[in-house]
Amino acid sequence: MFPSFHLTLSTLFPAFILISLFFITFKWLSSTSNTSKNRPPSPRKLPIIGNLHQLGLNPHRSLQTLTKKHGPLVLIQLGNVPVLVASSAEAACEILKTHDAIFASRPKLSIPDTLTYGSMDIAFSPYGEYWRQVRSIAVLHLLSSKRVQSFRHVREQETFGMIDIIGNSCGSVVDLGELLNSLTNNIICRVALGRTYEGVKFNDLLVRFTYLLGSFSIGNYILWLSWVDRLSGLRAETKKVAQEFDEFLESVLEEHVNKKRMVDDDGNGNDKGQDLVDILLDLQRDDTTNSILRRDAIKAAIMDLFAAGTDTTSTAIEWTISELIRHPRVMKKLQKEIKDIAHGKPMITEDDLEKMTYLQAVLKETLRLYTPLPLLISRESTQHVNLMGYDISAGTQVIINAWAIGRDPSRWEEPEKFSPERFLNNSIDYKGLDFEFIPFGAGRRGCPAIQFAIVINELALANLVYKYDLALPKEVRGEEIDMSEITGLTLHRKSPLLVVATPHFE
Ligand code: HEM
């Protein structure tokens, strides 16, 4: 054993010297070529993990701290992956407007990829022809103004249903967060699938699904540590949820195909009341030229609505109510506006919302302070680009800290203060043109469902505060409401929002 060991060492030694020389020369060459490039400032990094340890449990906050030290464009290293962090309105404008096409792709991340049939959905699919087509199908057939309008009865019924449930609580404590979550799930279910699926099993599946989308997979950043994802059970759970969701969506598709046959048999084919699955199946049937709408693509598109549309919407309403409870002056002013416009009618309907300028300002203020997707959805550069004087290589992951931008003191007076008045008498909007306020992102990958989301938010909020006085339960009254947060896919309240609702009209 030992002789052969010596023999191996003696033969390996010159090879070792040669390899070392080659490596040192290569390092030197690449470092000289790097210095000719002007990289954005970077914090000091550790071997192997780079800056991963600096992300913490609330990455939007840790990244804001890095920005304060290094400036609005910071290049960090997450394992092997270079990540550009943008935290000012100017930087966001450069990325989402000036160089929008270069930053319009998404990085491939293992968890969303497994859950969405290999990123066949809209939100996670790479920039290209496939993404263009699925996005335009969703925009045209589900999210256009006409379509959003056609689902008005669904939103109103579900919102009024929630108001009734609260009414039946007879002044006892209700978990408002849970009710708001059911509200958005039910609306998306009815619009996308034609009916609600409220069973414990489906709710549990949705919770696990959104939890996974917000989970961190180390294998995405340090490939050889992928075993950690296997060992922790993350990979197995992702596959399990993907399979259970697939079985559920298969049964929904079957239900629709059979229902369609019955309608056809009656000769009663009727456009009104069509849900998204009906529309996609029709398009698939008519699609003789190309096969963009394969079965997996239909299922992935539906999944996207749950991933992108439920938690984001309900968490925004939950934070708004939390802030209103903390700010009785704002609550009173809002209730007065709604009451004056409602003229004693039993419920607020969507026609009333347009006139409620203070309500709109309250919601904007919440989206500024509690940006539901604080880091938007990561982008990836597809070619080398010069950004604000810095060289950014192709394949760099890009994080836009919309949460920090919304609290940037150079753009917002008293940025930490909840003050809806700042949105009165000015034109700042969330439609992606004012880069200091981008809760829905901007540019070609910006959220395509702004109108859909806002109307759900406004209707729920208006009815909740019109019908009830909302207060903390007796045992916590007088204490500050807990506003601590927890970050997963979205920015959530850490503790449930428990309230007591006292009806106004008794
Ligand atoms: C308050 C509620 C919502 C917020 C704050 C929100 C925010 C966002 C953000 C920040 C993005 C990424 C934008 C970017 O990369 O620039 C996004 C993308 C997306 N959102 Fe929303 N969203 C909301 C509700 C919804 C709803 C209700 C739906 C669907 C019914 C939806 C569907 C989508 C889709 C499909 C994408 C992916 C777009 C793409 O990659 O091309 N969102 N959303």
UniProtKB/TrEMBL annotation:
Heme binds at residue 447. Its cofactor is heme. The keyword Kinase does not apply. GO terms for molecular function: heme binding; iron ion binding; oxidoreductase activity, acting on paired donors, with incorporation or reduction of molecular oxygen, reduced flavin or flavoprotein as one donor, and incorporation of one atom of oxygen. PROSITE patterns: CYTOCHROME_P450. It comes from the Eukaryota. Keywords: Heme, Iron, Membrane, Metal-binding, Monooxygenase, Oxidoreductase, Transmembrane, Transmembrane helix. Pathway: Secondary metabolite biosynthesis; terpenoid biosynthesis. InterPro entries: Cyt_P450, Cyt_P450_CS, Cyt_P450_E_grp-I, Cyt_P450_sf. GO terms for biological process: sesquiterpene biosynthetic process. The chain crosses the membrane at residues 12-29, 205-227. Pfam families: p450. Belongs to the cytochrome P450 family. This is Cytochrome P450. It comes from Deinandra increscens subsp. villosa.
